[in-house]
Amino acid sequence: MTNNETTSPAASLVMTVYNGERYLAEAVESVLAQTRRDFELVVWDDGSTDRTLEIARDYAKLDDRVRVVAAKHLGRTPALKAAIAETAAPYLGWVDGDDILAVTALEETAAVLDRESSVGLVYTDYVTIGEDGKARGYGNRCRIPFSKDRMLLDFMTFHFRLMRRSAFDAAGGIDESFRCAEDYDLCLRMAELTEVRHIRRPLYYYRIHADSISQRMRIEQIHCARDAMVHALERRGLSDRFEIDLQIRGRYSLRRRKTNG
């Protein structure tokens, strides 16, 4: 599995993980299986207390494209920003430590950036999977046609994204003031400065499970996303005409109680 290439990587892929021992091996292996091989993978251990760091270091021993950073616990957004600062390749993307990247994801997205210099961000469709890795369905967000204006209300550039670093830097990179929804805020800013392309194939497998950040922080994500929308309206000179009307609606159902009998 060891990579013997001496050339600089074309793409930097980042994976930030906190206590992710359950799914990390599968996530890392999906990156290492990419058909386009000129990349580096930076695994940022965000102060895990389980076997996450040990697992990551085992892969670094097997493949020199894997670089592991052991850090104190910072939290999702600061960790992502710090991990990206460790990279330098002209293309940039990230994979969550509990998700799976299709084997051609990097090849197909990088081909768009190689071919079209005006494009700064390319994204793919995705499939949701369960804890067991079995497909649950086609991603809802990627069904929405891309437009810079529609993105003000719908985050369709959800997964997988590969960015031209120059466009990422021009947009200002990760805004650490966002505790969550930092990727939505970034994509809004990038869409204002560069062309975006959509690959209509599911090249990312997004895992839904009880411990995922998206489940624990759903309400906070909604409020952070609203803040990203408000900032975008201000940047685009639309805040005097529009405001965000946020409605959070509960959905309830009955279920049978568990009995001890």
Automatic annotation (TrEMBL):
GO MF terms held by the record: transferase activity
| Keywords, comma-separated and alphabetical | Transferase
Kindly give the InterPro entries that the UniProt entry links to this protein.
Glyco_trans_2-like (IPR001173), Glycosyltransf_2 (IPR050834), Nucleotide-diphossugar_trans (IPR029044)
Q: Which domain of life is it from?
A: Bacteria
TM annotation in the entry? none
Identify the residues that the record assigns to the Glycosyltransferase 2-like domain, covering every copy: 12-169
Full protein name? Glycosyl transferase
Native organism: Desulforhabdus amnigena
